[in-house]
Amino acid sequence: MSNHTGHGHHHDGNHGHGHGAAHGSHQDPLDLDWGVMGPLLEQNAELSSEQYTEAARWVAGLPDAPKVRRILDIGSGPGVISCLLAEAFPGAEVVAVDGTPALLERTRNRAERLGLGDRVTTLHADVPAGLAGLGSADLVWAGNTLHHMGDQRAVLAGFAALLNPGGTVALVEGGLQPRQLPRDLGFGRPGLEARMEAAHAEAFEEMRADLPGATRENEDWAALFTAVGLAPQGTRGFLLDLPAPLGDVARDHVIAEFARRRDGLGDRLDAEDIAALDRLLDPEDPAGLHLRRDTYLLMARTVHLGRRA
């Protein structure tokens, strides 16, 4: 199962990247309050900025890689990663591609604040329908986006077709789901997070099955790169390790994610686990997320690279 945590885009998991040019997904973005979701997605991605900066530097340092002049960040969300890519590739234009205008506006504002407005541009497009209109690129970055496509192999082939000779596709897919609490909270049944992850996995599979043109695929990314004419260039995991006690920003992130999962997974958990979640979310409870000092944030993202000959 793919790791939906965080880069900053999609709204069906604990994401940070990978929002949402994927409007073929199960939730209509027009139904969301982007005034609320935009800042949350941005905060999520900012927490993982060191992971993504390290990943971008890894890509930039690949041996024999051609000069990167144009980057497509597909499913760019609020543009946090687009701006990090611009910093990691100072000679490149970065095009943030997303299907939600409100998030593209946040991208433009962020780029201007960081002095990157001349190199970070935006493009409103849905994927996969709009792939052909994106133009060519030396790097196609797709963060937690591909798993929202019904036919992942076909869309990956579409990404490959955008590459200039020697260009690279970077997929952020997989990794490890976040852990934030000890196994035994001191109340409720031990193992709450493991049960929440299992419930999330069921919801994810239902989401995948409901996508237009849904096709099951063995998610062996190296083999899939080869199948669409790309040479695998390696896979690396990047760790986010924020030990307890968390700072205010990370703590607020954890609280928001537990509240979202309480709403989204409530019908998949039993009454005892729901009661435990309600207690965790109670700002007055000494054992809740607002006050307990053993809350941490540990997760990993995996980046897979394939290069066009």
List the helices and strands and how they pair.
Blueprint: E1 8-9, H1 34-47, H2 49-60, E2 70-74, H3 80-88, E3 93-98, H4 101-113, E4 120-124, E5 137-143, H5 152-161, E6 163-172, E7 176-179, H6 192-210, H7 221-227, E8 231-242, H8 248-265, H9 271-280, E9 297-307
Parallel strand pairs: 2-3, 2-5, 3-4, 5-6
Antiparallel strand pairs: 6-9, 7-9, 8-9
Helix pairs in contact: 1-8, 2-3, 8-9
Descriptive overview:
This protein is an alpha/beta fold and 309 residues long. The protein has one domain (8-307): 3-Layer(aba) Sandwich (Rossmann fold). It starts with 7 loop residues before the first strand and ends with a strand. Helix 1 crosses helix 8 (248-265), helix 2 (49-60) packs parallel to helix 3 (80-88) and helix 8 (248-265) packs antiparallel against helix 9 (271-280). It has helices spanning 34-47, 49-60, 80-88, 101-113, 152-161, 192-210, 221-227, 248-265, 271-280, and strands at residues 8-9, 70-74, 93-98, 120-124, 137-143, 163-172, 176-179, 231-242, 297-307. It has 9 helices and 9 strands. Helix 3 (80-88) links the parallel strand 2 and strand 3. Strands 2, 3, 4, 5, 6, 7, 8 and 9 form an 8-stranded mixed beta sheet that branches. Mean pLDDT is 89; it is low at 1-30.
CATH architecture assignment name? 3-Layer(aba) Sandwich
Low-confidence stretches: 1-30
CATH class: Alpha Beta
Output the helix-strand order: EHHEHEHEEHEEHHEHHE
Task: Give Rg in angstroms.
Answer: 19 Å
- Derived structural class: alpha/beta
The CATH homologous superfamily is called Vaccinia Virus protein VP39
Estimate what percentage of residues fall within beta strands: 15-25%
